[in-house]
Write a structure and sequence with these properties.
two-stranded antiparallel ribbon; 3 helices
Length: 150
């Protein structure tokens, strides 16, 4: 799994001109799934994201987590995170899992994140053409890949 995590002041997901999810201070998580991703990847990534100390403490130092701040989260499936641009100019998405694999993993990740942060998590609509609006805070943007564990 590959995730792009953005610290936001606010974010929302719109599908067919209708808002389907919105949050205030927290994280917008773009999630790409590979065929080889497992429950172990889900648990590891959710734990890493929920405990990542990227929010400012009382001294203005990035020293608190999503859990510590009781922040919100939205998770949006994004297969393009697994794009390969090695050959030519058209990206290849061969490493991205198909919907039959990706959707259950995406949904399981959301459930695990809700369990880890002990609150409801916003989400996009799997496979839909979504418009994401966000106010990046910092900006703070971090990429995590479960295959690299970094």
């Amino acid at each position: 799994m590959r995730a792009v995590i953005q610290r936001v002041t606010r974010a929302k997901v719109v599908v067919d001109n209708k808002e389907v999810s919105s949050i205030n201070k927290g994280l917008l998580i773009l999630l790409g799934v590979e065929e080889s991703d497992s429950q172990e990847d889900i648990i590891w990534l959710s734990g890493k994201i929920s405990r990542l100390r990227i929010f400012n403490d009382e001294n203005g130092v990035m020293n608190t987590s999503l859990i510590d701040t009781n922040g919100d989260a939205i998770v949006v499936s994004q297969f393009t995170l697994h794009a390969s641009t090695k050959k030519g100019n058209r990206p290849s998405y061969i490493k991205a899992a198909g919907p039959d694999i990706a959707k259950p993993v995406y949904e399981a990740f959301i459930l695990q994140l809700q369990k880890d942060i002990k609150k409801e998590v916003g989400k996009g609509v799997f496979g839909a053409d979504m418009k994401i609006e966000l106010l990046n805070d910092g900006p703070v943007t971090i990429i995590i890949d479960t295959k690299d564990k970094k």
